[in-house]
Write a structure and sequence with these properties.
about 400 residues, alpha/beta, Aspartate Aminotransferase, domain 2, Aspartate Aminotransferase, domain 1, about 40% helix
């Protein structure tokens, strides 16, 4: 492949491999639990990772390995390992890298279950966690300087779409020898390259944009080979592995990732600009808007601004409960990144695990609507929003 290929070319052709046995273009689905060997010496060498191969699909599988290789290539990473869900990827990474008395620094505006890891779960195991104000880069740098083993970032954040300067914070982490982990789910490898910005590890809920069709659960971590190997060892023992059929479907979906993200990006920006002009809307959260506090950082480190926006309408949560059911081209559901538009408030989506008080402490407004833009025709989505807002 030539240098500087376009995103759709990369999505289709990275790690392309014609199956040597069947000459198939599509990577084969190997739904197999155990792999047989004809002699003990070879079997043992593979089991000890001294020779290539697979012994048991909880550990590795040819189809899941193909998916991991593809994601690593898209992210420009050395290696990758996959998981049954996005949160399995997050939790396994944190527990593989952190132990008692070690220190983690993260930000307040993160996905709800991730936030609870730092606020409640990790401290129970003796990990010292400091959760900083998301857009206060100086405060985050001070927290890193005071001691940091893992810096965990999410940009743009879920669901408030705040933007962090990944290069700046990764550099601060490197000064103290900390590992930088970035959740790149909202941006995808098409819109943002955390490894190129200094991150050591990149996490995806593959359920979202990498899948894009709402029919697969999965997660993936990619980055430095030594760190991925450590996380893989932990996953190998605890067992939250991605199954082969899910990996097969994700490989299918990755081929259209560049194409889908182009439409997601275009639709989301157009709708964010449209909503900014509506009198019933108090505020729109989208990094592609010039009014967004993190717009300049986003312009610098992103190639596109993503397919998710959030907005607040006048009347708070009560107005939200009347507005959402009026939408004709949006599903009220707890997912994002699909070809269909999906909407919901944080209380039923990103922060459903948190109490009202915890959501307030995390800085998530109760009247916020997360609008995950699909690939529908944008004029239809505009008309749908317009009629639903008129009903208020």
């Amino acid at each position: 492949m030539r240098q500087n290929e376009g995103p759709s070319t990369r999505s289709v052709h990275l790690c392309r491999c014609v199956d040597p046995n069947t000459r198939a273009i599509v990577p084969p689905l190997i739904e197999n639990v155990a792999f047989a060997y004809e002699d003990i010496a070879t079997w043992r060498a593979v089991a000890l990772h001294q020779a290539p191969g697979d012994i048991y699909s909880r550990n590795s599988n040819p189809t899941t390995s193909a998916f991991e290789e593809k994601v690593a290539a898209l992210e420009g990473a050395e290696s990758a390992t996959s998981f049954a869900t996005g949160m399995a990827a997050v939790s396994t990474t944190l527990f593989a890298l952190l132990g008692p008395s070690q220190r983690a620094v993260s930000v307040r505006d993160a996905y709800g279950a991730t936030y609870l890891h730092f606020a409640q779960i990790l401290p129970r195991f003796g990990v010292i966690c400091e959760v900083c104000e998301t857009e206060d880069h100086e405060a985050i740098e001070v927290a890193i300087e005071q001691g940091c083993d893992v810096l965990y970032l999410e940009s743009p954040t879920n669901p408030t779409l705040k933007v962090l300067d990944l290069a700046r914070l990764s550099a601060a982490a490197k000064k103290v020898g900390a590992i930088t982990v970035v959740d790149n789910t909202f941006a995808t490898p098409i819109n943002q390259s955390p490894v190129a910005l200094g991150a050591d590890l990149v996490i995806h809920s593959a359920t979202k944009f990498l899948c894009g069709h709402g029919d697969v659960l999965g997660g993936v971590v990619c980055g430095r080979k030594d760190l991925v190997e450590k996380i893989y060892r932990h996953r190998e023992l605890t067992g939250p592995s991605l199954d082969a059929h899910s990996a097969f479907l994700l490989l299918r979906s990755l081929k259209t990732l560049g194409l889908r993200m182009e439409r997601h990006n275009e639709n989301a920006l157009a709708l964010a600009r449209f909503l900014e002009k509506q009198s019933q809307v108090e505020r729109v959260y989208y990094p592609g808007l010039e009014s967004h506090p993190g717009h300049e950082i986003a312009r610098r480190q992103m190639h596109g601004f993503g397919g998710v926006l959030s907005f607040e309408i006048k009347g708070g949560f009560e107005a939200v409960t009347r507005f959402l059911p009026r939408l004709r081209y949006a599903y009220m559901a707890a997912n994002l990144g699909q070809v269909e538009t999906i909407v919901g408030p944080p209380a039923t989506t990103s922060h459903v695990e948190l109490t009202d008080e915890e959501r307030a402490a995390a800085g998530v407004p109760e009247g916020l609507i997360r609008y995950a833009v699909g690939i529908e025709d944008v004029e239809d989505l505009k008309a749908d929003l317009e009629q639903a807002l008129a009903g208020l």
